[in-house]
Amino acid sequence: MYSIGYDIGSSSIKAALVATSSGKSLDVVSEPKVEMGMIALENGWAEQHPDDWWQHVCNATKALLQKHNLDPKDITGIGISYQMHGLVIVDDNGIPLRNSIIWCDSRAVEIGQEAFDELGNDKCASQLLNSPSNFTASKLKWVKDHEPEVYQKIYKFMLPGDYIAYKLSGEIYSTISGLSEGIFWDFKNNDLAYLLLEHYGIDKKMVPDLADTFSVQGKVSKEGAAMSGLAQGTPILYRAGDQPNNALSLNVFNPGEVAATGGTSGVVYAITENLSVKESSRVNNFAHVNYTVSNPRIGKLLCINGSGIQYRWLMNNLDVSDYSEMNDLAASVPIGSDGVLIHPFGNGAERMLDNKTLGTQMSNINLNNHSKAHLCRAALEGIAFSFVYGMEIMESDGIRPTVIRAGNDNLFRSDIFSKTIATLIGQEIEIYDTTGAIGAARACELHKGDFKTFGKNIMENDYLMKFEPLSNRSEYKSAYNTWKQQLKLLINNL
Description:
The chain is of the alpha/beta class and 494 residues long. 37% of the residues lie in helices and 20% in strands. It has helices spanning 50-67, 109-119, 121-128, 136-146, 148-151, 160-169, 176-181, 194-200, 222-228, 242-249, 308-317, 323-331, 372-396, 415-425, 436-442, 451-462, 473-492, and strands at residues 2-8, 13-19, 25-31, 47-48, 75-82, 88-90, 100-101, 156-158, 173-174, 185-186, 191-192, 209-210, 236-241, 257-262, 266-272, 284-287, 298-304, 341-345, 359-363, 403-407, 429-432, 463-467. It has a 7-stranded mixed beta sheet, sandwiched between helices. A 5-stranded mixed beta sheet has the order 3-2-1-5-13. Helix 1 (50-67) packs across helix 6 and helix 11 packs antiparallel against helix 13 (372-396). It is globular and about 70 Å long. The N and C termini lie far apart (58 Å). 50% of the residues are buried. The mean pLDDT is 96.
């Protein structure tokens, strides 16, 4: 028997087929074959139509079933991971009233900041664990203010994964973890965030009913089966936003455990049981997938916009063939890159830098002595130093990492990158070959509560290697301190 996991991204929809008993990944397909586009009617806007996601889910599902010659009844469960913070609004017939305003749309920034100031920073921190910022609730308020005729027709709002579950089952639900990522959850009162709903004038009737993260959240309907190719009655057993799901995919559930990714942007996602926050303006705090009122598990999320995009930009603009060549060049240069510094903040405003737009900064380049090898090493070190800087912010918020697990992406495949981080934070980094769609498929079994077997399957199927701290920490520390001092100067000069 098999489970299917979906990863509803903004670039593509991935569907994974996993053997239910062993957790072994059998296949992952992606739809569409070219990257999905975004609709940007104005600068800073980003929209996609929810039914485009649904169509790609159906295509991917049929491709998996056909490729492996499966009877749809062999699929015992469905798990869903999705792009966080998106807004889907539907009428009382379940039809979307407009395009989804997705995660990277910035139109609601000012709305969220005004709410943060008017409600009070301390109140937001103690009850919401975040600023309302540019999250889903603020996007819904934007619709209320700017498209009142659309707002009046809203029956329910949903997150992207909720909409896919709805299309499969005909039932509208969300989760506490999902509502928290939209800033709709009050952690102090363990209830809907009425203070924000009332402040924004949002009717609580628009909020979906709640389902447990690991539970039967609905079953594929006759209509859902006809469109997707799945069997009617197949249960939906899990859903979560992409970063909590990435942590789940790496078996990160408990305080001190940290999940890291080094894709286009970098993410550090650390688990704590502490509801107090000191860095709510720089670090986001969401209910993790295993959060309960009696056993709180909070995922602290720190994003580094200028991560893999910096290294890719450098590859595209140097005379090199691939990342492997860049890594070899970087390895020919000593720690500290002979003084060359790169601060990789060229992908927009950085939340961990108090939303400052620093831009990528390259400094101390000597045209007689330095080469592209120095740029390669300085780029890897600069991105690694950014992760360490972010970890220091999280440590000031009470995080003490006991294990760090990362996916097998381009950055974490680099010895220089991974060993620099491991050495500076004094903690080994475990590398796993997995994806969000695979994690979502495996999570279908967690409604049974067997987290031990879940973790065992990840170790047996996905574990690749680990990077341990090196003994010459003082050399790395010196290079990092130089980088950090320069960062402070750059920030102060803005």
